[in-house]
Amino acid sequence: MAEMLLAKGADANAKDEAGYSPLHLAALEGHESTAETLIDNGADVNAKEANGYTPLHLAGQAGQAATVEALIGKGADVHAKDDAGHTPLHMAAEEGHVAVVEALTAKGAYVNVKDEMGWTPLHWSAQNGHEAAVKALIEKGAKMNGTNQDGQTAMHIAASEGQLHVLFTLVKLGAATKVKNGRGKTPKELLKGTSTAANCDMEIFKDISLIEIMEKYLAAERGKASLLKENRVMQNDHKGELRSIKENQRKRDDSSRKIKKEVGALKGQIKAIQEEHKLELRYATEDIQEKDAEILKMKNEMIIKDERIMSLEAKPHEEMEDGTEEPREGESEVASENTMMNSNVAVLQDTIKLIQEQNTKELLSLRNAQHLKEAEAASQLREAQEALKSRNKRVKTLKRQMQEKETANEQCNSELKGKENQISQLEGQLEKKESKIKTLRSRLKERDDQIKKLEESLEALKKEPTVSPEEESEDESESYESSQAESEDEPPKQKPS
Predict the structure, then answer these.
(1) Which of 104-118, 188-202, 346-360, 363-377 has the lowest mean pLDDT?
(2) Cβ atoms of residues 60 and 89 within 8 Å
(3) What is the Cα–Cα distance from 309 to 151, expressed in whole angstroms?
(4) Distance set, CA 385 to CA 260, 392, 394 (Å)
(5) Which helix (H) or strand (E) holds 399?
(6) For residue range 423-463, what is the model confidence (pLDDT) as tens digits?
(7) What is the pLDDT of residue 488?
């Protein structure tokens, strides 16, 4: 991909907002071949970003040993410094990358170089507890008693940070233990103020043997193990809290499901009420339509009767105009029939009005009842929906809290696993050291036995009777004469061929 982009005219020295070039990123990620391709196409191997880091700084910090060697092979400066005076060796030592430390020192990096605060790579390794890097730097010639601007040695830095592994290594390799820093503090005084040595009487700075130092060191590590046990107890308590939270969450989920069921039942009831209202309204509408049809029928009958009355009223006038006279009895019959029809029409009109008024009243009452029921159902539905929303909010908050607790628990578990691995490693080291201690103690016991025997023999010699010098000389002369006589009696010895 890099070759294709460069072939199309991409700038190998382009930088982002932080001043990183493509070579910086390739070195940081350990892409060795990409870095070589960029350098071959004109990338500046010693380009600096905003803080003064070169690609070699970033590769050393990330522990990319192969990329470090490739960059040095392409001309990277092993003595380059950033804005704070850090070299690539400072960066690698700070992170404890032993392979990078060895690669840089093999290519000529100065092992005792100092940054602007006077810190050497050994200071940085000691601060972060990188025991292997400390050993590698000392093997490459790092000064164990070199000081920074505050007069602190690597021992001071390790003691102030509670790095007992590094302290033991430095003491074992012969670092000075009673030197004072710029504030007049010894490493022992700095160690007493750290949390690591708070429960351990560290006497590692007195004139004692390495065995006693290791015993004190192991006592401190046992204190760490007790802290890990306390951490495990706290995690168990935390798991109990999580279980209770999950149980509460389950109960709330059950209650929310019940509320949802109740809301569904209410919706069903509202739907049934609406259907019932629709049926009642339809029946009422049909009744009104039937009554309207009856009224229309009555009106038609009234119209027919009115027409008949008019026709009957018109007959006498026609007969009178024609000059024909009928008897008075016919007129009286017509008049009586007319009055009856008028009375019937009036009765029909009154009944029609009464029916219409009754229908309107019934329709209004039905509509009012329907509106009331709909309003009541809507209010119940709103209350149920609001309750459901509040429960859902509670459920979301509880789920979020449970997720946070789970993430915290996972972090604790990962830290616990790391501590357990450290404890297992330390236990293995402890077993080895205890075996050595046993052998040393057995040797000491043998020497004590020898000393006792020598003392007993010395006391026995003291108890023997003393002899005067004259007697001693006489005894010596007698022994000499006897030895001479024996030598004369014996034949001469032949020289070995």
Answers:
(1) 188-202
(2) yes
(3) 138
(4) 9, 10, 14
(5) helix 328-463
(6) 777 777 777 777 777 877 787 788 778 778 777 777 777 77
(7) 43
Contact 140, 110 (CB under 8 A): no
Is residue 313 within 8 A of residue 338, CB to CB? The reply is yes
Residue position matching structure tokens 């009487």: 201
Q: 378-381, long-range: CB within 8 Å, 24+ apart, which pairs?
A: 378/270, 380/266, 380/270, 381/263, 381/266, 381/267, 381/270
Amino acid at 321: E
Helix, strand, coil shares of the chain, percent, nearest 5, are 75, 0, 25
The Cα–Cα gap between 381 and 271 comes to: 12
- For residue 217, pLDDT over 80 is answered with no
Q: Is the pTM of this model over 0.85?
A: no
Q: What is d(CA 395, CA 397) in angstroms, rounded to the nearest whole number? A: 6
CA distance 330 to 315: 11
The label of the residue with tokens 């798991």 reads: 239
What is the average pLDDT score of the chain?
77
**Structural tokens at position 437:** 């201690």
- Which residue ranges form the domains of the chain, and what is each CATH number? 1-206 (1.25.40.20)
- 112, 138 Cβ separation under 8 angstroms: no
Cα gap 200→217, rounded to integer Å: 9
Q: Where are the beta strands (DSSP E) in 350-389?
A: none
Looking at mean pLDDT, say which of 21-25, 244-248, 426-430 comes out highest: 21-25
Among the listed residues 27, 33, 25, the one whose alpha carbon sits nearest the alpha carbon of residue 1: 33
Q: How far apart are CA 364 and CA 385, in angstroms?
A: 31
Burial 325-338 (b: 16+ CB within 10 A, else e): eeeeeeeeeeeeeb
Query: Cα separation of 125 and 388, whole Å?
Result: 59
